[in-house]
Every structure is written in structure tokens, then in C-alpha cells.
Write a structure and sequence with these properties.
about 10% strand, alpha+beta
């Protein structure tokens, strides 16, 4: 429910008594489940990805697993 509230908003989760029937939210939860599968008694399976560092034109440092700003 926390991830659904993060994506759709806590009020949407409260109003629906759980995961709201929003396609975007349901697809988001499916994506998270694919990326971080859980099984009983296990920890999330996290795959290492390349993290890149870049500095924007204001001098702010950003870290991302995606290319560029």
C-alpha cells in the first residue's frame, strides 16, 4: 500500500480501500514487483546497475542510473 500511495497519493488509496484502479498505479506496482521480487523470508533481489554522476548547468550534482539530465 505504501508504494500505491507513493504513486497515486494516500487519499486515493484511502478512498479505494487499497490499491486504486488507476492503470498507471497498477502498472507501477507490477514494474516494482518485477524489479524487486520478494518471496517469504527473503530480502529484495536488487540487481546492481551502473550509477552515473553528472553536474547540471547550475552546478548541482546528480546521480542516476539513466544517461544525462
Amino acid at each position: 500500500m505504501t508504494l500505491a500511495a507513493y504513486n497515486a497519493g494516500e487519499n486515493a488509496v484511502d478512498r479505494n480501500g487499497g490499491v486504486p484502479p488507476f492503470r498507471e498505479t497498477q502498472e507501477y506496482l507490477e514494474k516494482i514487483a518485477r524489479l524487486y521480487p520478494l518471496s517469504e523470508g527473503s530480502r529484495p533481489a536488487i540487481t546492481a546497475v551502473g550509477i552515473m554522476k553528472f553536474v547540471d548547468n547550475k552546478g548541482v550534482v546528480h546521480f542516476s542510473n539513466m544517461d544525462g539530465p
